[in-house]
Amino acid sequence: MVLWLAIAQIAVALAAMVLCLGAGLRRSEPNDYTMGATLLVTLLLLAQVVVAIVAPFAGNHATGDPLEFWMYLIVAFALPIGGGFWALIDRTRWANLVLALMHFAVAVMLYRMLVIWG
């Protein structure tokens, strides 16, 4: 896991959380900004999947349990996809709050993956 990429992903996930939380507290429905932030988090997680596949071949091996790392990564990748579908189906302010909570969970999981990688 590349340190600067992980820090950037955590920062983007937390910024997306603040954006979605603000939209939810304003009682607005999911819009292009909240869905775009979710898409950006998903694309960054897809980049993390590619990095996690390539990094061991470049000599950057995980010091922790690789199975635990991959389970965190798979679930973290599935969260924005599921949350995005939720927000597309349920067009209420609660969808923005679900997106905010999902972005916070992704940020925590990314930090844990960084710790596992070593």
Walk me through what this model shows.
With 118 residues, this protein is mainly alpha-helical. It has one domain (3-117). Helix content is 81%, strand content 0%. The protein has helices at residues 3-25, 32-54, 66-89, 93-117. Helix 3 (66-89) packs antiparallel against helix 4 (93-117). The longest helix has 25 residues, at 93-117. The protein starts with a helix and ends with a helix. The relative contact order is 0.22. The mean pLDDT is 94. Keywords: Membrane, Transmembrane, Transmembrane helix. The chain crosses the membrane at residues 6-25, 37-57, 69-89, 96-117.
Distance between the termini: 8 Å
Q: Find the count of extended strands (DSSP E, 2+ residues).
A: 0
Helix and strand composition category: mainly alpha
Question: Can you count the helices?
Answer: 4
What fraction of the residues are assigned to beta strands by DSSP? under 5%
Number of domains: 1
The parts where pLDDT drops under 50 for at least 5 residues are: none
Mean pLDDT over the residues: 94
Q: Helix content range of the residues, please?
A: over 70%
The ordered string of helix (H) and strand (E) elements is HHHH
Quick summary:
The chain has four helices and no strands.
Topology:
Blueprint: H1 3-25, H2 32-54, H3 66-89, H4 93-117
Helix pairs in contact: 1-2, 1-4, 2-3, 3-4
